[in-house]
Design brief:
The protein is 41% helix and 20% strand. It is of the alpha+beta class. Helix 9 runs parallel beside helix 11 and helix 16 crosses helix 17. The protein is elongated, with a radius of gyration of 28 Å. The structure holds adenosine-5'-diphosphate (ADP), magnesium ion and zinc ion.
Length: 492
């Protein structure tokens, strides 16, 4: 919890916070950025190392092509321009877990620049600029725990040394901790959709440094910033920013000056502490890495990478609202993860009434999952089951109350809807394909316009046909079977 405000609401209102974030994302390649060592998390310390990532003399880095592709894909998803030529640079500093004495990063010629993320803040949209996305290698990990004399010893695990990272630097465009939280949420969502990182904060696959300053409202120049490093959850970042804003204002109001420094957040206390000031900061003496050629990602390669870009969450939400007649709120919930969106869409396409599916997923499935502490992937009811049950309610074969009872049984027995429906003695349904085929043929002949629309790509028309067949069979046909028969006929 953040501590109680050190400054009054009046003073808070007098100042405007300015925030810029630097986010490190681990790219999900199997091997490291400059050698073939494994990137697997959790292996015994110092087992995934070689002369290159140990920085032994004479060992030369070889760039992993997949890292470039993942980095460029993330950059494209963040609306960045990918530079045709970028340069690796040595960032020199000494740290026990950095065996080479320098980190290979990118400096004045990064892989990509000039992107943005659109955030929703209190109902309106705002663009947060992305200055750059560059590639670099991770450092190792110092371990201070697990020793009898922990205060005296530090152990080093170099498995992480050379693991590929994309660093994403934002413009100082955010004006509140809330905006920073929203930016991080959207950023993570986009990166997860691209699949280039698992963004697992506990495992350090996503790390954020938050830069913060305040200025009197109306003043043009930025104030002096501090940087809060290595905060390990979005909530803590928001809290650390809230704390820093109040601290800055307190210092300024009492006639003091903010020193530019790096600080650490203690989540238990809800306070930040100075770690090192910028005066003592390292001079990194960047220079172009002599062991690597300039990285060239030409137009052809860029086009190949772009072709693998999935539909992004924002675009997907807009399309889903149009395609399925669901609300913006429905779409927001149902696209929380790419897997959820995909599962919902598979059910929505199979069912007669997508809106009903959206309602069922949100009110009946997510609620039950939450109550049992389960993830969507662990749901006993599959999306095919949701689609089938939605159609049964649609045709009146079962009531809404019956559906809820059946869902309860599914969760009790850990069985899918179809199985429980059978067990509970469903109303007799026709699995007689010949009747369904006959009804389907009649319908297809009677609705040439809808057939044409379907064949032109409007796959939701399937729902129309399923509904008609179900109606004609008075709810007696098996919806899944109807689905199969119709799909076959319409596709042929
Ligand atoms: P440094 O050289 O100190 O690392 P950069 O110019 O590289 O600073 O910026 C690092 C991050 O800090 C960026 O995300 C940027 O948007 C942000 N930033 C820069 N100046 C300020 C400021 N005055 N207040 C808040 N954030 C800032
Ligand atoms: Mg910087
Ligand atoms: Zn190695």
């Amino acid at each position: 919890m953040a501590t109680t405000p050190a400054v009054s609401a009046d003073l808070l209102a007098k100042y405007e916070p300015v925030i810029g974030l630097e986010v490190h994302v681990q790219l999900l390649t199997a091997s490291k950025i400059f050698c073939s060592c494994s990137t697997r998390f959790g292996d015994p310390p110092n087992t995934n190392v070689c002369p290159v990532c140990l920085g032994l003399p004479g060992a030369l880095p070889v760039l992993n092509r997949k890292v470039v592709e993942f980095g460029a894909l993330a950059a494209m998803a963040l609306q960045c321009r990918v530079n045709e030529t970028s340069i690796f640079a040595r960032k020199n500093y000494f740290y026990p877990d950095l065996p080479k004495g320098y980190q290979i990063s990118q400096y004045d010629k990064p892989l990509a620049e000039h992107g943005f993320i659109e955030i929703d803040i209190y109902g309106s949209k705002k663009r947060i600029g992305i200055t750059r996305l560059h590639l670099e290698e991770d450092a190792g990990k110092s371990l201070h725990e697990g020793f009898p004399d922990a205060s005296e010893k530090t152990a080093i695990d170099l498995n992480r040394t050379g693991v590929p990272l994309a660093e994403i630097v934002s413009e100082p465009d955010m004006r509140s901790p809330e905006e920073a939280y929203e930016y991080l949420t959207r950023l993570k969502e986009i990166i997860l959709y691209t699949g280039v990182s698992d963004c697992n904060m506990e495992e350090g696959s996503l790390r954020c440094d938050a830069n913060i300053s305040v200025r009197p409202r109306g003043q043009k120049e930025f104030g002096t910033k501090t940087e809060v490093k290595n905060v390990n959850s979005f909530r803590f970042i928001r809290e650390a920013l809230e704390y820093e804003i109040e601290r800055h204002i307190g210092v300024l109001e009492s006639g003091g000056k903010i020193t530019q420094e790096t600080r650490l957040y203690n989540a238990n206390e809800g306070k930040t502490y100075g770690m090192r000031s910028k005066e003592q900061a390292h001079d990194y003496r960047y220079f172009p890495e002599p062991d690597l050629l300039p990285l060239v990602v030409d137009a052809k390669w860029q086009a190949e990478i772009r072709a693998t870009l999935p539909e992004l969450p924002e675009a997907r939400r807009e399309r889903m609202v149009k395609e399925y007649g669901i609300t913006v709120g429905d779409a927001a919930t149902l696209t929380r993860t790419r897997a959820m969106a995909e599962q919902f869409e598979s059910a929505a396409r199979a069912a007669t009434n997508p809106k009903r599916v959206a309602n069922l997923v949100q009110s009946e499935i997510l609620g039950r999952l939450k109550a049992q502490g389960l993830e969507l992937e662990q749901s006993p009811i599959s999306m095919a089951g949701v689609a089938a049950s939605a159609d049964l309610v649609e045709t009146g074969a079962i009531s809404g109350k019956m559906l809820k009872d059946l869902y309860d049984l599914c969760f009790e027995r850990n069985k899918d809807f179809g199985a429980v429906y059978e067990e509970e003695g469903r109303p007799e349904q026709s699995r007689d394909t010949s009747t369904i085929e006959k009804l389907a043929d009649e319908l297809i002949a009677a609705n040439p316009k809808q057939v044409e629309q379907y064949r032109a790509g409007k796959k939701t028309m399937l729902g129309f046909f399923v509904g008609q067949v179900m109606k004609a069979s008075k709810g007696q046909a098996n919806p899944q079977l109807v689905n199969e028969v119709l799909t076959k006929k319409l596709e042929s």
